[in-house]
Design brief:
single chain; about 475 residues; mainly alpha; two-stranded antiparallel ribbon; 22 helices; about 0% strand
């Protein structure tokens, strides 16, 4: 049956009338209850019965994309219009991949196309992607095979495979030093990018609020814990509850959430500009160029919102009644310490971006390539659990490398608010910590920091998916 479908749906030379007739025949086969429209269940069942493979959620995406009158189904006009428009997009993608214009795509062209977009994969991984599309076993893909594979598979085309492997805004673990999210040209022109950023910001806000007690404990231990004043996790929470009650566990969370939106927006805009400046060829960006652009974008965003970072630390460590709110805190810091106080710890913060972003990106790329080489059998789509796993591990490794600088930054931000504390520059502060507490003194508070990673990622993902759905972003 599948061969018959291939013969009448996926032939190369068809005039417009023949194509319309083909769509009519296909529509009639899919419209099993003969009500003049094809809904998600009919499309899913019909494609399966005809042996046409479709990706997870593909039927829903096809119906959502083509359903202009919002009646949860496609009539013939909507159905044929969707197929014609989608086929045009597939043709453009095919031509962009066919570098030598011979009408066929081989593994080298797949590998080169991914490399042009900053995703470097091995020969074996490129062959696996090709093999998942190649229907006749020649290890090359012609237009008919390409169209056959993707016409009813909108969620797994090569452009989206590329996007799958970019870092995702889903992962918000309270630190904003990662490489910014990337968007396809289609997402930029259709305006989907701002919806994605909004969904990511909301996910980050809920995630940070959910893990705020652990974040406050981290900062508390970074500043107050030492060899002579050991603070355990349980003991620290008891101290905070005794001093300020249950609500004190969320001190500093308001400004931590408030700074997400401006930082995300600045980072995204700066990243786009730095990519244009650093790319050796127009439209192509190598992995090291992407890393540099991401690091510079992170530095730009951090510079712009850094006073909010200082306020967050001061508000997190405040005692009951010390400040009435963000404005009062800012006013008192300005009056007592001057404008310079809002940039205390700026240098270690900037230095922390390089190891964090570099290790995060390197580990992510390594894990991705490992998965593609060992576990990708017939698709390059890793699935959400692999993506979340890669992102969580890479972010954790990045944190581990940059944590000493984060601790020094926090101590410098908090110095003036801690009684009897010396106002030390970065070098002398590091020396003092190493002399009094040893190397592991630079890792005070890392336990609650690690404890918040998995709940933060989980909350972010759930909220992100709900926001995507609410904003009408197709899956």
């Amino acid at each position: 049956m599948y061969q018959a479908v291939r013969k009448f749906v996926f032939t190369d030379c068809r005039c417009a009338d023949d194509a319309s007739k083909t769509y009519e025949e296909l529509f009639a086969k899919l419209d099993t209850n003969k009500d003049g429209k094809v809904d998600v269940s009919e499309l899913k069942a019909g494609l399966a019965a005809m042996g046409i493979k479709s990706g997870k959620g593909a039927a829903q995406k096809i119906v959502s994309s083509g359903d202009k009158d919002q009646d949860d189904g496609l009539d013939f006009n909507e159905f044929s219009k969707y197929l014609k428009e989608h086929e045009k997009k597939l043709r453009l993608t095919f031509k962009s991949l066919d570098k030598n214009n011979d009408g066929r795509i081989d593994y080298a062209e797949v590998k080169q196309s991914l490399a042009d977009l900053g995703v470097n994969i091995s020969k074996e991984a490129a062959e696996k992607i090709l093999r998942s599309i190649d229907a006749d076993g020649t290890m090359t893909v012609d237009w008919n095979e390409w169209k056959e594979h993707f016409l009813f598979n909108p969620a797994t085309n090569l452009q989206e495979i590329i996007h799958y492997w970019k870092h995702s805004t889903v992962l918000d673990i309270g630190d904003s030093l990662t490489i910014p999210d990337e968007f396809t040209e289609e997402e930029k022109t259709t305006g989907v990018w701002w919806k994605q950023l909004t969904a990511g910001a909301m996910a980050g806000a809920v995630s940070r609020t959910g893990t705020a007690p652990l974040d406050r404990m981290k900062v508390f231990m970074q500043v107050h814990s030492s060899k002579s004043n050991k603070i355990s996790l349980v003991g620290g929470f008891k101290q905070m509850l005794k001093e300020g009650g249950p609500t004190s566990l969320w001190r500093g969370n308001g400004i931590n959430v408030l700074k997400i939106a401006p930082e995300t927006a600045i980072k995204f805009m700066a990243y786009e500009q730095y990519k244009k400046l650093l790319a050796s060829d127009a439209g192509k960006i190598e992995i090291h160029e992407r890393f540099m652009a991401g690091s510079l974008a992170g530095a730009t965003a951090q510079t712009a919102i850094y006073p909010m970072e200082v306020l967050k630390t001061r508000l997190t460590l405040r005692k009951t009644g010390q400040y009435s709110g963000m404005y009062d805190c800012a006013k008192k810091i300005l009056k007592r310490e001057g404008v310079k106080a809002f940039y205390k710890g700026y240098i270690p913060n900037m230095l922390g971006i390089i190891p964090y972003a570099g290790i995060d990106l390197t580990v992510y790329e390594s894990l991705k390539n490992f998965w593609l080489s060992h576990y990708a059998k017939d698709t390059a789509n890793p699935g959400i659990f692999v993506l979340l796993g890669c992102g969580t591990i890479s972010s954790t490794c990045g944190q581990l490398a940059s944590y000493p600088l984060a601790l020094v930054r926090t101590r410098m931000q908090a110095q003036a608010s801690v009684e009897g504390s010396e106002q030390l520059p970065m070098g002398r502060l590091v020396k003092k910590i190493l002399e009094k507490e040893g190397f592991f003194g630079l890792y005070r508070g890392i336990l609650p920091n690690f404890m918040k990673v998995i709940p933060a990622v989980s909350i972010s993902y759930v909220v992100y998916e709900y926001m995507r759905s609410g904003l009408g972003i197709q899956k």
